[in-house]
Design a protein that fits this description.
single chain; alpha+beta; 23% helix; 448 residues; PmbA/TldD fold; six-stranded antiparallel sheet
């Protein structure tokens, strides 16, 4: 894995080579990574792995034609072949009037912000093993847990460099750590499974293994002996670990490509009231140690913190350069990409702001409803917004959380869900997309 200057120069030199060989424009993405992990089950080591690799992706333009190729061989000879192959492919490709590099006048200039994404660590496998064992031991110590699905701990480091023929070249580096455990509670036909995990950029920020194990076990035990529920329209609480999926559907609906293809249920929603007044959905690429923090986007454009929803009003699409050209707007600095294919668009660290009421107050006000902690299957129509998903969780009766429920479906339309949902005040910043508990006042709930 190259250091930052070498990674930047490697991407830039490939772009320069393409220009010398006749490309009208070009861009390149270098990714170098190192990862290692340990998995255990029932106190025994199951697997240890470590990998290191480099890959470079490359896109060339000849007029309005373009092609993308990628290689894990970074030798000088391989790069020569890569450029020649890309140019030959581009010459045969169909014209695309919207494809192209990001506008030169908009490119990020200057020194990338220090987002503190790299702690420089490379833990010993023995340390990872101990962390995995500690998580599983803590889970198996909880009464009612009868088996383990295993536990794991991992560490990684990656370098990303992007360069293009409009004069942009920059590189960043990040580390990552994770710990997870899955356990089974109960016996025979009554068994239930659940899990817990946490990821962080810095090892110091990773949640204690014992806390992760304890949470997984208590979740599994609490799901024992589920009861049936009578179908009806009722309030639905989405636990934070599944509430983020609603934000995922929102992101898909406001992506520039979906809008340009006219395949989004929010097609005509820009600058209109999509959520209730007071709702804010914030995108922050500059969060220190954030899992999706970035100093520039996947096309070399500047990024900025912004409210995608402000007081309930949708303020922006998420547009890379190609979709922005289709829509007749400026790219929004949300381009994301890997080494293969053209850029797409997506948020950085996305959150729906905390509300005023506590989760406990919300529960206390529900006569009959459900708390959802797991969602199953897809069941979402991105064109119409129709929503129907399998789920599991807990029954709420007379303001109190009751027994577990399983094999139910919750259904509505995402437009209605967005317009009526209320966030609780229990927001925690733990992932790339974060949400507090969300209350949807009315959804159809039925047995699956």
């Amino acid at each position: 894995m190259l250091d930052l200057p070498a990674a930047r120069d490697r991407a830039a030199s490939l772009v320069e080579l393409a220009r010398k060989k006749g490309a009208d424009a070009a861009d390149a993405v270098y990714v170098g990574d190192r990862s290692q992990g340990v998995s255990v089950r029932l106190g025994q080591l199951e697997d240890v792995h470590r990998s290191e690799g480099e890959e470079i992706g490359f896109r060339v333009f000849i007029g309005k034609r373009n092609a993308t190729v990628a290689s894990s061989d970074l030798s000088k000879e391989a790069m020569q072949t890569l450029v020649e192959r890309a140019l030959a492919m581009a010459a045969e490709a169909p014209e695309d009037q919207y494809a192209g590099l990001a506008p030169e006048e908009l490119l990020f200039r200057g020194v990338p912000a220090d987002l503190d994404l790299d702690d420089g660590g490379d833990p010993d496998p023995a340390e990872l093993r101990q962390r995995a064992l500690a998580a599983e031991d803590a889970a198996r110590a909880i009464e009612g847990v009868t088996n383990s699905g295993g536990a794991g701990a991992s560490a990684s480091a990656s370098t990303l460099a992007i360069a293009n023929s409009n004069g942009f070249a920059a590189a960043t580096r990040a580390t990552g750590y994770s710990n997870s455990v899955s356990v089974v509670a109960g016996t025979g036909s009554t068994m239930q499974r659940d899990y817990a995990w946490h990821s962080a950029r810095h090892l110091a920020d990773l949640e204690a293994a014992e806390e992760i194990g304890d949470r997984a076990a208590r979740r599994a035990v609490s799901r024992l002996n589920p009861v049936s529920i009578k179908a009806g329209v009722m309030p639905v609480l989405f636990d934070p670990r599944v509430a983020t999926t609603l934000l995922g559907h929102f992101v898909g609906a406001i992506s520039g490509s979906a809008i340009a293809r006219q395949t989004s249920f929010l097609l005509d929603a820009l600058e209109t009231q999509v959520f209730a007044e007071g709702i804010t959905i914030h995108d922050d690429p500059f969060r220190k140690r954030g899992l999706r923090s970035r100093a520039f986007d996947g096309e070399g454009l500047p990024v900025r913190a912004m409210n995608l929803v402000d007081d309930g009003v949708l303020t922006s699409w998420l547009a890379d350069s190609a979709s922005a050209r289709q829509l007749g707007i400026q790219p929004t600095g949300h381009a994301i990409r890997g080494v293969s294919g053209s850029p797409g668009a997506g948020p950085a660290n996305l959150t729906i702001a905390a509300g005023q009421r506590s989760r406990e107050d919300m529960i206390a006000g529900i006569k009959k409803g459900v708390l959802i902690t797991e969602l199953i299957g897809q069941g979402v129509n991105g064109v119409t917004g129709d929503y129907s998903r399998g789920a599991a969780g807990y029954l709420i009766t007379d303001g109190e959380i009751g027994p577990a429920i399983a094999e139910i479906t919750v259904a509505s339309n995402l437009k209605q869900i967005f317009a009526t949902l209320e966030p609780a005040n229990d927001l925690r910043l733990r992932r790339g997309i974060d949400s507090p508990t969300l209350l949807v006042p009315e959804m159809t709930v039925a047995s699956a």
